[in-house]
Amino acid sequence: xxxxxxxxxxxxxxxxxxxxxxxxxxxxxxxxxxxxxxxxxxxxxxxxxxxxxxxxxxxxxxxxxxxxxxxxxxxxxxxxxxxxxxxxxxxxxxxxxxxxxxxxxxxxxxxxxxxxxxxxxxxxxxxxxxxxxxxxxxxxxxxxxxxxxxxxxxxxxxxxxxxxxxxxxxxxxxxxxxxxxxxxxxxxxxxxxxxxxxxxxxxxxxxxxxxxxxxxxxxxxxxxxxxxxxxxxxxxxxxxxxxxxxxxxxxxxxxxxxxxxxxxxxxxxxxxxxxxxxxxxxxxxxxxxxxxxxxxxxxxxxxxxxxxxxxxxxxxxxxxxxxxxxxxxxxxxxxxxxxxxxxxxxxxxxxxxxxxxxxxxxxxxxxxxxxxxxxxxxxxxxxxxxxxxxxxxxxxxxxxxxxxxxxxxxxxxxxxxx
Length: 418
Prior knowledge:
Strand order of the largest sheet: 8-7-19-18-17-16
Strand content: 15-25%
Largest sheet: 6 strands, antiparallel
C-alpha cells in the first residue's frame, strides 16, 4: 500500500524527499526529485499550504500549483489503477460554438474558460470526447483536487458496500458501524440521514471563518492525530431531530468515512480501486488524503485524480454503476442518490445522497445532477442527453467568485450538442 508523507505543516510528518522553507506564505524550496516524482510533471513546483487554500489567500499561480499537488499537503493513500485504461474515443463531431445567455449577458466558451479560471474541461457525449482542454500548464497526466466532488464518490462507495452486503442499508444506524459515536448527537442517526446531511447535528461550514466547525475539522486534520476528526464530530451538539433539517457539513462526510471504514474493514482507497478504479479502467492512480498516518481517508475533500478519470467516474455513474460488465451499485441507486429528497415532516430538499440535483430550467427538465466542489470543481451528468462534463478550476476564493454560473454554461454546452 503506497503512502505519501510529504506534509507541509510544521506539525505534520516531514518526508525525506521534501525540503521546504516557509516565508511569507510561499515556499522558497522545492521537493528533492525522486524516482516517483520524475514521472509527475508538476512534482517540483512551489506550493502553498492548506489554510491558505481555505482562506482563499493564494496568488493565481501558487493556487494552480497547490491544487495539482495536494498530495504534498497531507499523508495520502493511493487509489490504484489497473494499467488498462478504458477508451475515451474522440467523437466524430466535435463541440461546436457554445454561447450562454445568462441574465442578459452572452458568454462563449473562451469567456467561460478565462473568467472561471478553468484549468481543465472535458465533455463526453455518448461516452465519446467532443471537447477537451487543459489550461494553466495542466496536461492529461495532471492530478487535480476534487474538493467536495469527493463527497459524491464517497457516497457511491456506500452504494457499493450495500450491494456487497457490507452495509445493511441506508436505514442502518450510524453507531452500528462507528461505536465511537454512541452517546453523542449521532446516536439515533441513520446512514440515510448522513447521506442527506440531515443528521440534525449542529454545524457551521464557513470555509474562511477560523472559528467555524469546518475549520475545526481542518485543524484536526492538520494535527494528524488518530481519531482527531471523530473527536470534533463527537463533541457537536444536536440542533434538530434526525432527518428534519439539512445542514451542509463536510464533517458529516467524515462520519460517512468512518461508517465505510467500520463496514469494509479495509481502506476506502483500496475499496474504490477494487470496485471502480480498476474495473472501470481509470488511466491513472489517484491519491486520497488521510486523517492521520495510515489512518482513515478524508471523504469530503481529499481525493486528487486526472480530469479524464473524473469524467470516467461520471460516465460510470451515468451508466447506472456498471464496471466491466458487473453491476457495482444496487439497482436504482444512481437515480435514488442523485434525485431531490423529502425531509421528515414533508419539507422538500434539493439535495440527494451527497449529489446536487440541478436547479436551472433545462437541467431540471433533464434530471441532470452534479458533484460539486469549492474553487470550481465539477462532474456534471445529464442522463437525458447522455452527457458528462468534468471540470477543474482555480477560483480565487472557495465560493462566490465564479463570474459565470457553471450549470447554466453546461446547459448551453448540452444544447449545442443536440
